[in-house]
C-alpha cells in the first residue's frame, strides 16, 4: 500500500507552519514504514492537489484550521468524506479540496478513496503574520498535540510506537 | 475518536473578504465597503537577511503566484548588485514566466470564470463550479484542462527545477540552464499548449459571445469603471510580463505617464483608509481624489484587461489577431467593461504560448552562459513584473555587505484595491433594489465584480478550509439587517 504523509502550510507564517512541523517530526518516527513517502512541506492547493495525491492508496494530511469557537491547540481528525459539503465554488483562485478530489476522480486520476484521506487539523491562533515560530499558545500546546497525533498516526499505519 | 467534531470553519479576524452594504431608508444601497485581509510583517521579516536570499523567501508570500514574487524579487536583487546579469538568464526567466502565466490563467478561466458563464451567474450554487462546467462541456474538455495545466507546470519544473518554491534565480542570472534533452521534452508540450490556448479562445467565443445576454452583461451591465489603466510594456508598447516600463493611460487612451521601475515612487503613492488594513495606491502626481471615476481620477486598474488597454499592439502574430478581434468586438479601446478581463486572459494565454514557441526554437536557449557573478554591491534595486493579477513591485535596499536594510512591496491586487471597492459598490447599488430582498444569486453577481480581478488575498496561508470565505453584511438604519456567508 502506497501511503503519502503530507505537511500542508507555510513554514514562515507563524501558526500556518504547524502542519509542516508535525509532518517533519513524525517523519522521523515513521522511517522504515513500508510504502510510506513523506512530503513534509506542501503549499499548493486546488487542482494541483490532484497531481500531488495521484497514485497513492492512502494519504495522511497535516494542516492548520480555524473553526468557530475553536481554541488554539485543539486538533481534529477526519476523512475527506467530511469535506463533501464544502464543494461549492468559493475559492477565489482555484477549486477547493473536495472539488479537486471529485474532479480528479471524474477524470480518471488514481486518487485514494475519501475514507483513506485522513486529515489531522490543528486549531491555530495566528496565520497572518510572518514569523518562524508558532504563537506562544500553540507552542505550549505543541508537545501534547504531537504526542496525540503521533499515537493516532502510528495506529493508522499499523506501526509500533517510536523507540 | 469517540467525540464527534463538527467542522464549521470560520476565519481569522481579517482573514476573509467582507462586504458591508449599508441600505438607506428606502432599502436602496447607500454605501458599500469591501474589506480584504492582508498578511502582516513581511517587510520587517526580511530586514537583516542576506539580500540574495530574498527571492527564495518571497515565494512563500503567495501560494498562487510565487513565481511572480520570485521574478520581481530577483530583479530587485539584480538592482542591488548593479544590474549585472547574463542575457541568456533573461530569456530563461521569461520562458519560465510565460509557462507560469498559462498555468495560472487556465485555473482562473475554467475554475472561476467559466462557472458563471457556462452554468449561468444565477444558477444553483451547488453546481456552479468546475464540476458543473465539466458536466456541461464534457469530460474530454475537463481532461484537457487538467492536462494543459500539468504541462505548463512541467515546463516550469524542467526550466526552473521547481514549481512552487522556486530557488532558481540568483544575482546575475539563474542556477541552471536547459539541456538539449530537456528542451526536447518541452517541445511537444509547447505545441499542445498553443492549441489549447486557441481552443480556449474559441470556447469563450462560442459560450460567452454566442449568448446575447452575456454580451449585454459584459458591455452594458454595471461592471464598468471609468478609471485609468496600468501595465508593463516593451519598447514598442506591447505587453511584456517580465520586463519593460510601466505605462499608464487614461480610459480614453491618452498616455498619462511611462516610467522605469526605479521611478515608481515618483508615480505611485498609497492612500490609507481607517476601515481596512490594505492600502489604496493611486497616481501620485494627480494626488488622492477619493474613490471617484472620471478622466481626472487618480485611481487605476492593473489587470489583464488593463495590460491590453495600455498596449498599442501585441508582440506575437496570433495574439495580435486575438487582441484586434477582442477590441473590435468590444467596440472600445481602452475597454472599461471589467468582465472582459476573462477574454483578456485568454488573449494573454495565446501570447504566452507563442513566446514559449519562440524560446523553444531559439538556438541559444540551451547555452550555458546563464549567470554572471556580480562583482559589486550598489545597495538598491526595484523589480517590477506583471503578476497575473496586476503590476507587482519589489523595492529593496541593502548595506555594503549585502544585508537587507529595507523592503517595500506593492502587490498586484493592492493596485486594484480602490477599483475593486468602487465596482463592488456600483454592482451592489445596481443589483439590490429598494423593497426587494437580495438573494444568493445577487450575492454571486456582486462577487462576479471582484472575481473578475482575480484578487489575491491571504493567499500565503493554507489553513483549512483552503478557500477564501466571503461574508456579506447588510445594514439598515445602521443596524445589521441580513447576513450572507460563504465558507465562513
Tell me, rounded to a whole number, the average pLDDT of chain B: 87
Give the number of DSSP strands of chain B: 15
Low-confidence stretches of chain A: 85-92
Order of helices and strands of chain B: EEHHHHHHEEHHEEEHEEEHHHEEEHHHEE
- Low-confidence segments of chain B, given as residue ranges, are 1-15, 458-468
How are the strands of the biggest sheet of chain A laid out side by side? Answer: 2-1-3-5-4
Question: Class of chain A in CATH?
Answer: Alpha Beta
Largest sheet of chain A: 5 strands, mixed
Calculate Rg of chain B over CA atoms: 22 Å
Tell me, what's the shape of chain B? globular
CATH superfamily of chain A: HybD-like
**What is the general shape of chain A?**
globular
> Number of DSSP strands of chain A?
5
Assign the structural class of chain B, choosing from mainly alpha, mainly beta, alpha/beta, alpha+beta, or little secondary structure. Answer: alpha+beta
Judging by the overall fold, what is the CATH architecture of chain A? 3-Layer(aba) Sandwich
Oligomer: heterodimer
Average pLDDT figure of chain A: 86
Structural class of chain A: alpha/beta
Largest sheet data of chain B: 4 strands, mixed
Written account of the structure:
The complex is a heterodimer of chains A (163) and B (488). Chain A is α/β, with parallel strands linked by helices. Chain A has helices at 18-29, 48-53, 97-106, 136-157; strands spanning 3-8, 36-42, 58-65, 75-79, 117-123. Chain A has a 5-stranded mixed beta sheet, with helices on one face. In chain A, strand 1, helix 1 (18-29) and strand 2 (36-42) form a beta-alpha-beta unit. The longest helix of chain A has 22 residues, at 136-157. Chain A is globular, with a radius of gyration of 15 Å. The two termini of chain A are 23 Å apart. In chain A, 52% of the residues are buried. Chain B has 488 residues and is an alpha+beta fold. Chain B has a domain at 17-41 and 416-486. Chain B has helices spanning 42-45, 54-57, 66-80, 87-119, 130-137, 139-160, 180-209, 212-220, 264-267, 304-310, 317-330, 341-360, 412-415, 417-431, 440-451; strands at residues 17-23, 29-35, 169-170, 173-174, 228-233, 245-249, 255-259, 268-271, 280-283, 300-301, 380-387, 390-398, 404-410, 470-476, 479-486. In chain B, a hairpin with a 2-residue loop joins strand 11 and strand 12. In chain B, helix 4 packs across helix 5 (130-137), helix 5 (130-137) packs across helix 6 (139-160) and helix 6 (139-160) runs antiparallel to helix 7 (180-209). Chain B is globular and about 70 Å long. The two termini of chain B are 25 Å apart. Mean pLDDT of chain B is 87; it is low at 1-15 and 458-468. At the A-B interface, helix 2, strand 3, strand 4 and helix 3 of A face helix 1, helix 4, helix 5 and helix 6 of B.
